[in-house]
Structure formats: C-alpha cells, structure tokens
Amino acid sequence: xxxxxxxxxxxxxxxxxxxxxxxxxxxxxxxxxxxxxxxxxxxxxxxxxxxxxxxxxxxxxxxxxxxxxxxxxxxxxxxxxxxxxxxxxxxxxxxxxxxxxxxxxxxxxxxxxxxxxxxxxxxxxxxxxxxxxxxxxxxxxxxxxxxxxxxxxxxxxxxxxxxxxxxxxxxxxxxxxxxxxxxxxxxxxxxxxxxxxxxxxxxxxxxxxxxxxxxxxxx
Length: 219
Prior knowledge:
Keywords: DNA-binding
Shape: elongated
Oligomer: single chain
Domain HTH tetR-type: 5-65
DNA-binding region: 28-47
Organism: Stutzerimonas xanthomarina DSM 18231
Number of strands: 0
Order of helices and strands: HHHHHHHHHHHH
CATH superfamily of the largest domain: Tetracycline Repressor, domain 2
CATH architecture of the largest domain: Orthogonal Bundle
Low-confidence stretches: none
GO molecular function: DNA-binding transcription factor activity; transcription cis-regulatory region binding
C-alpha cells in the first residue's frame, strides 16, 4: 500500500489537473483549495502564491524532458528510438498541456519563469540537433548540418504549438486532446523528415508513419 501523498503533493497534483482542464488563468488558489477541501491558509502554508505552484510544476515538466531528450550511451540510434523520443515528448506535453496552451500568458506574468523557459528552449534545441545528427550518423537520415539545424527548429515549432493548434481546431480542448491526437502530433514531426530518409531506412520509417497516422478531423 503506497503512502498517502502529502498536502504539498496533493496541491501540486490538483493544480495540474485544474490547470489542464480549465486553463491556468481561470484557476485561482481559492479554486484549488476548494477542490481539495482545505483552507486557503493551508495552501499558502505550502505555496506563497499561484506562481510558486506554477514554478514547481514547470520544474517537474523540465526535469521530465531533460530525462529523455538525450542520446543513448554506447550505441547508435535506431528507428525505434524515433518512436521513443516523440511519444515521450508528446506525452509530457499532454501531462503538462496547460504550459503550452497558456505559455505566452505564463511567461508575460513571471520574469523568472520566462528566463527559465528561454534556457530550456535553447538547451533542447541543441539537444534536438544532436539527436537528428545521431540519426544522420546512424544512416537513417541524410542531411547537411544546416538542414539538421533547420529540422530541429521546425520540430520545436510543431511540438510547442501542437496543443494550441488542437484547441483552435474546434474550440474544445477536451474533445480534441486525446491519445490519437498525440499520435497525430508524432506523425506531423515525422513527416518533416520524409525528404531526408535514406533508402535503407525508408521501409521502417514508412511503416512507422502508417502506425502513427490518426485523422485530424473526425466525422
């Protein structure tokens, strides 16, 4: 039997749930306290304000991404690694989708968070370039260094814009944001690479694209 989560942990989990469901700007500390059936004073004992909660949740998101967006040690990349990277990243985006949906608002209201995000973005643009270069070195992609850099930037744009894009498709995040739509996001990233796939890797990449495709518009 797992131990009961602490009040601090319950506050973080409830905040994440509410931010994802309703949008960060629609949720106050009073809403969070009421959701947990605790007093606002109890919440403020653990977090001085909503920005402190957001900062802690972003820290968790950042550590999640830092943990998997790395090259494997001691071996070359494979096509299977493509699925691993992209599913892990888009799952992290799903779990913390409020960050992407409300990013501009979050960063405009918190200078420290904005600075953290700038370093986060720079660090992982470089990580993405290293990973794409790893696929070049493994004979899966054939690209020049400028093309590797451009692909990393384009992939970052899609990844960071995917949640807001889905919210604009029909105006209903809950309706659009499901695992099929995550798979579609992975599919979109892989289509960026189609023109650079080597002949030897093409059957495997084509099979992966077929597995990951999901209709963007249903009905």
